[in-house]
Amino acid sequence: MKVKNMLPALCAALVLGLASCDNKGEQEMETKYYTVTFDDVELGKDGYWNGSDMSGKFTSGVCDFINDYTEEYASWMGFACSSLADTLTAGMGNQYSVMAGEGANQSRQFAVACFDGATLNCAPNEFGAFQAESVWLTNSTYAYLAMKNGDDFTKVFGEGDWFKVTLTGYLGENETGSIDYYLADFREGKAFISNQWEKVDISALGAVDKITLSFDSSDKGEWGMNNPAYVCMDDLLFTQTVPVVE
To answer: H/E/C letters for each residue in 27-66?
Structure first.
C-alpha cells in the first residue's frame, strides 16, 4: 500500500529531473555582428582598385565582391573599391569618387558598384548563412553631377524624375527579397539627389549568400538608362546567431 502511494511522487520527480536535464542541455546562443568596411582592401597608388589585376574580385570582411575587367578597353563592371573623394570634377574620368567627400561614418574607403548585375557573395560558414541587416548608400560624384547639371547623355533631373538602385538577396537558387533605394527623387514635389551617406535597412532580404544590384531611372532612351548606373556602398552589416563559447 505504501509503495502504491509513492508512485505519483516518484513519477513527478522523474519528470522534473528530465526537464532539468533538458534545460542544462540547451546551448546558450548569441548574436555576432559582421561589418564590411572596405578598409581592409589594398588599393594601390591610384587610390582605387578596379580589377585591372584580372583577379575577378576583391574580398572585404565576410564577402567577395565580383568584378569583370576588360583589358582591351580598360573598363570594368561590378564592384570596385576606392578612397577618392573629388566632389567637383564631372564626367567618367572621376567615376571612383564619392559625392559625400569621404566614406560612411568618416571612413577612408568604400565600394563603387556599376551596371546591372553587380554581385557580392557571402559564403555560409559552419553556422549557416548570414542575415542581411543594413548598408550605407549614396551617389558617386559622376552620377550626382550628371543628374544635377546634365551631360552628353543625361538630362538635368527635374519634376517627375527618379533614379534608384535595387538590392536583391539570394540563398542558394532562391530569391529572398528585394529593397529599392532612391538615389534621386523628384516625384510628388520632392527635389532630392543623394550626396550624403544614408543607412538603409535591408533586413527584409533575410539570410543570404548573395546580393545583386540593379538600376533603373526615369531617364531612358533607345539603349536603356541614360544617367550613369553607379552607386557607392559602405559599412554593410550582417548578423548571425551562434553558440556561446565558454
So the answer is: CCEEEEEEEECCCCCCCCCCCEECCCCCCCEEEECCEEEE
**What parts of the chain have a pLDDT lower than 50?**
1-23
C-alpha span between 112 and 103 (Å, rounded) = 11
With beta carbons less than 8 A apart as the criterion, state whether 233 and 118 touch.
Answer: no
Using CA atoms, how far apart are residues 215 and 115, in angstroms rounded to an integer? Answer: 7
**How many other C-beta atoms are found inside a 10 Å radius of the C-beta of residue 105?**
12
- pLDDT, residue 25, reads 60
Grid coordinates representing 40?
Answer: 581592409
Chain segment 92-149, per-residue pLDDT in tens? 999 999 999 999 999 999 999 999 999 999 999 999 999 999 999 999 999 999 999 9
35, 135, 181, 211, 218 from 206: Cα distances, Å: 16, 14, 17, 11, 29
CB 117 within 8 A of CB 77: yes
The pTM of the full predicted model, rounded to 2 decimals, is: 0.88
